[in-house]
Design a protein that fits this description.
The protein is an all-alpha fold. 73% of the residues lie in helices and 0% in strands.
Length: 329
């Protein structure tokens, strides 16, 4: 690994923390999709969905390499991932399914559930489709662990890219369909960390050029969404734009970097709970006609879906051993 990068892990991680915060903000916005949304907002969602999860997966792959331990056994690695990802996923799924079962008879619930959902959540994102990311990420970790050399991981990237171009897999169990489409972005992060860990450390000028290309591409995509090639191109261009942008923010806006380093530990909690908070927020605000404007509702609900999990994390979940275990903290 690059010697400079190895000597300054905090600097490297600050850039990644900014990127994670950017992604989670886009996730929270992207999952607020009410029926009364104006055309401009729907176009914003189309843009967000082209690259926000590919960037998240890129970061996950990159972090896998910079945090991996050569001597770690597969059993130890999987136990660590179960504690960090699987147990919080199951706990949160149980909470969400229970809330839906208790409320869907008297209120409108997105993606209704049944008691069988408690079983199905072990192999499907039953509590909410957004949870596919956690199942798919677990599958990716289980695969990449067995590729021990840089060369073998490069081969896996090529294979992942080829598989992503095949007709979509019809198997939803264990989110294999999402793995087929998305593992290429995870492996891109892995290979960049292996071969060119400083690649995204561009100066402001090149970063602005990439952002301009992304903006032009997104403007075209919003009007012509029939091209899967365009969609995949924007995913990679989004990675190429977001990572240097976050690096430049770290360099030129240190207060932002410090804030993101402070807030980044809450990203997983935000991801787990934001849709539930958005659901309650929409139901609550429907009772107040004075707030019946899309812009005001969007600002309030998106802000709450971001802030409440942060407060929940810092004020409750990380304070007790049981909740730290249940939520991977």
């Amino acid at each position: 690994m690059d010697s400079k990068l190895s000597k300054s892990p905090r600097k490297r991680l600050a850039t990644l923390d900014i990127a994670r915060m950017v992604c989670i903000i886009l996730v929270v916005i992207g999952h607020y999709d009410p029926s009364n949304a104006p055309v401009q907002y729907n176009n914003l969602l189309k843009v967000i969905y082209t690259f926000h999860m590919p960037v998240f997966l890129f970061i996950s792959g990159y972090l896998y390499i910079v945090t991996r331990r050569e001597e770690e056994t597969f059993a130890a690695f999987i136990i660590k991932k179960i504690k960090r990802l699987a147990i919080p996923y199951l706990v949160t799924s149980t909470i969400i399914i229970t809330i839906k079962l208790l409320t869907q008879g008297s209120a409108r619930v997105d993606h209704p559930v049944t008691t069988l959902s408690y079983l199905r959540m072990f192999y499907l994102p039953e509590a909410g489709y957004f949870l596919w990311f956690i199942i798919a990420l677990m599958m990716m970790f289980m695969i990449v662990f067995h590729f021990k050399s840089r060369t073998s991981r490069l081969v896996l990237l090529v294979v992942s890219f080829a598989i992503s171009l095949l007709p979509s897999c019809d198997i939803d169990i264990l989110c294999l369909r999402q793995c087929q489409a998305m593992m290429v972005y995870f492996m891109t992060g892995v290979v960049i960390a292996d071969y060119a860990p400083n690649l995204f450390k561009l100066n402001t000028g090149p970063t602005l050029i990439i952002l301009l290309l992304l903006a032009v591409g997104e403007a075209y995509y919003v009007q012509h969404q029939d091209s899967m090639l365009m969609y995949r191109s924007l995913a990679f261009l989004g990675i190429a734009a977001v990572m240097p942008l976050c690096h430049n923010c770290e360099r030129h806006i240190p207060v932002l970097a410090r804030s993101c380093v402070l807030l980044a530990p809450s990203v997983y909690i935000i991801y787990l709970f934001h849709t539930t908070i958005e659901g309650f927020g929409k139901a609550f605000l429907e009772k107040f006609p004075i707030l019946d404007t899309f812009s005001l509702q969007a600002i309030i609900i998106i802000a709450l879906a971001f802030i409440i999990p942060i407060l929940l994390h810092h004020l409750i979940l990380k304070r007790f051993a049981t909740t730290r275990f249940l939520f991977g903290l």
